[in-house]
Amino acid sequence: MDILYQRGRATASEIHQALPDRPSYSAVRAKLRVLEEKGHIRHEEQALRYVYLPLVSRDKARQSALRHLLGTFFDNSAEQAITALLDLKSSDLDRGKLDRLSDLIEKAKQEGI
Fold first, then answer.
1. 2-54: which CATH architecture?
2. Cα 100 to the chain's mean position, in Å?
3. DSSP states of 52-78
4. What is the C-alpha to C-alpha distance for residues 109 and 113, in angstroms, rounded to an integer?
5. Are 32 and 49 contacting, i.e. CB atoms less than 8 angstroms apart?
6. Annotated domain spans of the chain
7. Do the Cβ atoms of 57 and 63 come closer than 8 Å?
8. pTM of the predicted model as reported, rounded to 2 decimal places
9. Phi/psi at 39 (nearest 5 deg)?
């Protein structure tokens, strides 16, 4: 999906070539078929090739992925996920970033989220 979001459209071959640690071409085609069956992408025929396009916006896909991640690894707990991220990336967070996160948490408290 990332490649389709970056390019806007691509063939299976183009997607395959752009992947790091490339899986087999048939694995890419199988994944594209699954994504199409689930309604995430569609294809158009152009010059005897399928060109794939994303149907779901990147923001909607991001939200769906986060919900799945929370459910799978964090018992649907945003707190557990945030704690894990802070533990993992605490060295990357300078004072300004921590203040911004603190402001976002305070805003969420005020809004009753």
1. Orthogonal Bundle (1.10)
2. 23
3. EEE-S-HHHHHHHHHHHHHHHHSTT-H
4. 6
5. no
6. 2-54, 58-111
7. no
8. 0.69
9. 85, 15
